[in-house]
Amino acid sequence: MAKRKSGLSLRTASCPSCGAVGSMREIVYGMPGRDFDFDKYIVGGCCVTEVDPDIGCVKCDWRGMCGECS
Ligand SMILES: [Zn+2]
Fold it and tell me: Which one of 36, 59, 66, 69 counts the least CB within 10 Å of its CB?
């Protein structure tokens, strides 16, 4: 599988809530497909809110935007 180039490296980002490093995952909305990588992404569900978080923490369940973590 090809490595996806992203401006933000979630692998090295730390959670702004619990401080865990490497626990950040990209949130994908909708139904996960057969080849969905649960190790790399969080399922955001189909309920889209006014402000959709695009990343989340698998340790503390924090949800937020990419700009909030570094
Ligand atoms: Zn966290």
Answer: 36
> 44 φ, ψ to 5°?
-85, -10
Question: Ligand 1 centroid vs 14 CA: distance in angstroms?
Answer: 8
Round the average pLDDT of the chain to a whole number and report it.
81
Number of domains in the chain: 1
Let me know if residue 17 belongs to a domain: no
Residue 54 domain boundaries: 24-68
pTM to 2 decimal places: 0.70
State in Å: Cα 50 to ligand 1 middle.
22
* pLDDT average, residue stretch 3-23: 80
